[in-house]
What does this fold into?
Amino acid sequence: MTRLKTRDVCHISSRLEEYDQQLLAGSGRTLLGIACHACGVDEIKIKHQMNAFTIQVVPITMGRGIISGFTQAVLAILTFLGFDARITENPDISGIAGSFESDSDAIMMADDHQFVGINLKNGFVTDNSEATGKVFAAALDLMARGVRNRRVLVLGCGPVGEAAANALLSFGARVTLHDIHISTALALKERIFSGQNIAVESDVDVALSHHEYVLEATPSANTIPDGRISSDMIVAAPGVPLGISKNGCHILGDRLIHDKLELGVAAMAISLLGQEHGGVF
It folds into this structure.
């Protein structure tokens, strides 16, 4: 998990409505709708159950400490979606214990290495990296009006890229993997290959020239140069920092979806609620 900085999260609360409209323009679905698509649950049914599902956000002080504004941003996202959410009065173990004592349904918490949500009723754990990969794959599927039988390039084969690749395969995409370390891409193909269409491309320029649909999940800037952005390219980009320049973002316009926290948190929360009922709605 990339450790975010205060500047990454400080404006999230005030921009949620605007971002929701951007998502709607680009994908046809809102933040909630994309998360529901990622988790395979019915948005209408979810809406009727969210306000009765209590999620406690637990500040964690270990390691390099609390990122100023992080728990507040997570809380803002959860309440914007419609969950009954709050930040625990105490951090760390006291906050976790208090969540059990108050009979909350779930908790969310992050340290320097992992950001997780835990359903306190059944023990289900959702990881932010996996949820983020899945939800951005879902966003790309919506933006493309379906990726089934279409070639999709996944840039970056870490945990987020791996989750995205698996989700894209479940949507029926033909996936091409690229990583700056070719061995990482080959190892991922070996792990997830099951008779499905998975290719590995070692040259990013060649890969970009042959794919209109791209999921950018690298931790590097300038992964997609301006000159490689075609008029038909659609990009879902969970990578931090964003691998596209400001000019590239302007070129893509509504054909780009990128955020540093919102979609991942939404998918985590929906998966926690979905597991409350065995994932069946």
